[in-house]
Specification:
The structure is a homodimer of 160-residue chains. By secondary structure, the first copy, chain A, is mostly helical. Among the domains of chain A are: 42-109, Winged helix-like DNA-binding domain superfamily/Winged helix DNA-binding domain (Arc Repressor Mutant, subunit A), CATH 1.10.10.10; 112-146, no CATH class. Chain A has six helices and three strands, in the order ααβααββαα. Chain A has helices spanning 18-38, 47-56, 62-69, 73-85, 113-128, 133-149, and strands at 60-61, 89-94, 97-105. Chain A is elongated. The N and C termini of chain A lie far apart (56 Å). Residues 155-160 of chain A have low confidence and may be disordered. At the A-B interface, helix 1, helix 2, strand 1, helix 3 and helix 5 of A face helix 1, helix 2, strand 1, helix 3 and helix 5 of B. Chain A binds a DNA duplex (30 and 30 nucleotides) through residues 28, 31-32, 35, 44-47, 61-63, 71-79, 82, 97-101. Chains A, B: This is MarR family transcriptional regulator.
DNA sequence: ACGCATTAATTGGCTGACCAATGATTGGTC
DNA sequence: GACCAATCATTGGTCAGCCAATTAATGCGT
């Protein structure tokens, strides 16, 4: 028999959280699309954020990257090591504090910078295709609110 | 010196794709929050979609699941194996076609069903907190459009 | 000056998810 | 009936990302 399964869509399913579910699906598709666009640059989905941070800032300690991007330190370590191996990034111990690892974008990596910007532009166009200005504005505004709601560190404690 | 890095926020950064970038961050936070809420049930982020599909449908072939959820077959195989090991799922070869694997939710797993629904509800509330009805409606509508834009399989080919 | 808490980074273990290639099984066609 | 293409699932390899525990280095307090 093998029951018929509806092709995943924004149809009410009796579990509630319709928007949340749609968001989850959109999130996956978005990441996937981004990864595809990013492929030609040699970067993987997720690495672009690290690189963008490094392009915009001088030598940075990893802990600073983890804090700024709200990533787990172990994630930063591993990803940076791979980026280093790919020649995108240069890591060196800070002589003044030998605990810290100072990271900076390699000279060659700057060639990717405009390409990454290009990718973001394409992706933006793709996801917003067919939306009028009002919708785009609304989407941006609402998304920001949602981000604040999900903001890291404000689980329960009303104030720090 | 270790340059100061701005705490990731929806601030223009010279890369364009502001909305897309915000979406990417929201996506990560959303998945993370969902995972946390899901933890008590014993499920991991991502598995809930499989389970929901199985709860709503009888014995299903894996290929059907992959198609319906738009997942890679290998992802389905691995995740289902883990779910099987956890006792959430039962897999058996179809006697009529020994290529296919028929999958169904275990009896005990149905206890999780309301909890998962609960989680979706909580998550929905969390992300939409502080949004008025109009914004919620707009968000849902726009997300659906975005999902269509990202819809799988419509990369280039205008029609099949 | 010694010791202990803090901070930085790393390792190990586990998750979903992808892609590409392989192994079964089936079903058509000649 | 033999062969060959299509289908289903699996394996092997890669990635980001998390958490928990560990090691290294610093700095503060007594």
């Amino acid at each position: 028999m093998t029951t018929e399964l509806p092709h995943t869509e924004a149809t009410e399913d009796g579990y509630g959280g319709a928007v949340s579910q749609t968001l989850a699906r959109v999130a996956r598709l978005h990441r996937l699309a981004g990864g595809r666009l990013l492929r030609p640059t040699g970067l993987c989905s997720g690495q672009e954020f690290l690189m963008m941070a490094l392009w915009d800032a001088g030598p940075v300690r990893q802990s600073e990257l983890a804090r700024a991007l709200d990533l787990d330190p172990s994630t930063v370590t591993l990803t940076l090591r791979r980026l280093e191996q790919g020649g995108y990034v240069i890591r060196a111990r800070d002589p003044h504090d030998r605990r810290v690892m100072l990271v900076r974008a390699s000279e060659e990596s700057y060639a990717l910078r405009p390409k990454v910007a290009e990718v973001w532009g394409q992706l933006e166009e793709h996801i917003l295709d067919g939306l009028d200005d009002a919708e785009r504005e609304a989407f941006a505004r609402i998304l920001s609110k949602v981000e604040k709601n999900l903001a890291p560190g404000e689980e329960d404690s009303p104030d720090a």
